[in-house]
Amino acid sequence: MADSQPHPIFKRRWTFPITIQVEPRLVAPPRWYPWLISVGAIIIALIIGGILIAIVGGDPFASYAHIARASFGSVGVFSDTLVKATPLIMVGLACSVAFRMRLWNIGAEGQFFLGAFGASAVVLAPLLPENTTPWLFIPVMILAGLLIGALWGFIPGFLKARFNVNEIISTLMMNYIAVQWNNYFIFAIWTEGGFQMSKMFPHNAWLPRLTDFADQIPFFRGLTTHAGLILALISVVIVWFILYRSKWGYEIRLIGDNPQAGRYAGLNISRNTIMVMMLSGALAGLAGMSEITGVVHRLQGAISPGYGFTGIIVAWLAKLNPFAVVVVSVLFGALILAGREIQPSGIPKMIQGIILVCLIASDILLRYRVRIARRNTGMEEA
Amino acid sequence: MNLIIIMQAGVATGTVLLFATIGEILAERSGVLNLGVEGMMLMGAMSAYSMTLATGNPWLGVMIGMIAAGLLSQIHAFITITLRADQVVSGLALTFLGTGISLVLGDGLSKAGTVSLLPSSSIPLLSKIPLIGPIFFTNQNIMVYIGYILLPIVWFYINRTRLGMHLRAVGEYPAAADALGINVFRLRYLYVFIGGMFAGLAGATISLAISPGWFSELTTAGQGWIAIGLVIFAQWNPIRAAFGSYVFGALRRLILDIQGPTMILGIANPFYYNPYYGYFLEMLPYAFTIIVLVIGSREAVRKRLGAPAALGVPYIRGERGL
């Protein structure tokens, strides 16, 4: 090393002095480790988002403080946060189920719209007269939402199983089709006096809200959280049971982890593909039904600020774990709720994107050991 | 409703799809599936438009749009090539990110007023050819002509040059390419970047030429995803991609024009008498994408054609490859 002047023959191009070395993990990391990584990824994402907000001339601290205050600041706003979280839970579950089998259902948005359409059809077609008791009305609407959502999931599932059609593209295209389908009914068939919305549903077709019980319990006055949250929580338990306690769920997970092994084990992959897509579609359709009967109370064009797409991030952040979906949904519900008032309006979407990017990037820390090492420049020995 | 006009407009709007599809073909041929085309196109459209607004020079806008989309694509490249993450999820994330950033940075652009756009012109001699002349060479935007020039170049590059062979080798059998001394990682980064630049070019073509302006997410309206579908239909071949793109462009124009006349083929035009049927027409491009995918997938099975073998698989040096 004494001779700092290398021989001209060994003269090398300049190389970056440090290198990232990636080695597969041989030992599984402790249980808390993945969650620590996820939290770290979110914090980094929020920092990056803050920098970007500052660049476009906003105040990141004010923006984040506003999000926190406008979504968790009081019982009233927290109730609104739960309202936004309700569809996210169901859509997050829909994505989790499909992703577990490595089926990339990006069509939750369309399935959400068609679930809302199905539920509306019960009132507006009408399948049931207006004075039906809620005890019949609500279950029929739930069924309609589930069925139409499942149908919308069946189509790409069938195309995938039968023709090997890439489900990413087909589900995505069907989102656009679903929106136009709803538009036709909103504008042409069920329009109320030429406006871009149907008439208001009768009260017995509304999912009960907390504020409806304000006569008995005054504390609930003004709280908008509705029974859809209960539907969502029931779905969580059902999906958890299906995925982790049933034979079908075992098949789903096996095919997801290793389709080759699943095929050799004699599992019917085509049938599972279709069934999982239908379950996924049904869950997203239920979300649409819950939103239309619990919040909007009429069919109109703007019923989703992109719930179906946020569901993808929710599922990924929850690591496809149904219970974690609930927690993540509340956080993203807060982001959607508070984001409505933040300018420029794209900020919540941008933050969602950054969070997803950071999460995916952080995934490598789970699968590999990453070390930053000095690059061996080959000069030390000389 | 004039068929010549529909096809002429189809070539113009199809050029957007053509650029995006060619970019994605190059990226996928190197083994990297990039589902972020929609986000990159929005990024390109937004940057190109705002740059043109600031400088008054649309060519500068096109350049900045391409660079911005190319830089965005490098996030995907880093995550999938270096960090070896799932390409599907990463591509989705890129779409979210590109859309979000474009919406934030493009805030207020929609009310910004008019900018100078890319010029249109006719080609002197070629426009006189019957049928082909009016469709392809009359009053088309300069971007359309650039598309005609790029198309054979890209085809020749992929299929007939040494560098194109390297590209295909990296996408089909990266371990063998690596053994030959081809730098797999560097090439994949490069082609993801080029793919991003093409997506940016497609975006700039929208906002500065085909349907000028910035309409937030509606600027692209899902064309990035249609482009990804077209890649599968095109069997990763740029010539077939051009065919698909132009047909799709014509379809979009047909949807607009078919609602005009009162009679079609001697029968009363239902789309004229009930304009609400227009919503079903609006579904057609998306339904067609699915149909095109079915055709492409069936054909791939029959001819045993397929995606580049290493598509979607991260290359890890020293591990057993494909």
Average residue-wise pLDDT of chain A:
87
Helix content of chain B: 55-70%
Strand order of the largest sheet of chain A: 1-2
Q: Tally the helices of chain A: what do you get?
A: 14
Sheet with the most strands: spatial strand order of chain B: 1-2
Backbone structural class of chain A: mainly alpha
Mind telling me the C-alpha Rg of chain B?
A: 20 Å
Whole-number tally of structural domains of chain B: 1
Structural class of chain B: mainly alpha
Give the number of helices of chain B: 13
Order of helices and strands of chain A: EHHHHHHHHHHHHHHE
Overall mean pLDDT of chain B stands at 88
CATH architecture of chain A: Orthogonal Bundle
| Uncertain ranges of chain A | none
Topology:
The complex is a heterodimer of chains A (382) and B (322).
Chain A: E1 18-24, H1 32-55, H2 60-72, H3 75-100, H4 108-124, H5 134-163, H6 167-189, H7 228-245, H8 247-257, H9 259-264, H10 269-296, H11 307-317, H12 322-339, H13 347-362, H14 364-367, E2 368-374
Antiparallel strand pairs in A: 1-2
Helix pairs in contact in A: 1-13, 2-12, 3-7, 3-10, 3-11, 3-12, 4-5, 4-6, 4-10, 4-11, 5-6, 5-10, 7-8, 7-10, 7-12, 11-12, 11-13
Chain B: H1 3-29, H2 37-55, H3 58-82, H4 87-105, E1 120-121, H5 132-136, E2 140-141, H6 142-160, H7 162-172, H8 174-179, H9 184-210, H10 223-233, H11 238-257, E3 263-264, E4 267-268, H12 270-273, H13 278-302
Antiparallel strand pairs in B: 1-2, 3-4
Helix pairs in contact in B: 1-6, 1-9, 1-10, 1-11, 2-3, 2-4, 2-9, 2-10, 3-4, 3-9, 6-7, 10-11, 10-13, 11-13
Structure at a glance:
The complex is a heterodimer of chains A (382) and B (322). Chain A is mostly helical.
Please, could you describe this protein's structure?
The complex is a heterodimer of chains A (382) and B (322). Chain A has 382 residues and is mostly helical. Chain A has one domain: ABC transporter involved in vitamin B12 uptake, BtuC. Chain A is built from 14 helices and 2 strands; from the N terminus they run βααααααααααααααβ. Chain A has a two-stranded antiparallel sheet. Helices cover 68% and strands 2% of the residues of chain B. Chain B is built from 13 helices and 4 strands. In chain B, the strands form 2 sheets. In chain B, strands 1-2 form a two-stranded antiparallel ribbon. A two-stranded antiparallel ribbon of chain B has the order 3-4. The radius of gyration of chain B is 20 Å and the shape is globular. Chain B starts with a helix and ends in a 20-residue tail after the last helix. The interface between A and B is large, with 51 and 54 residues.
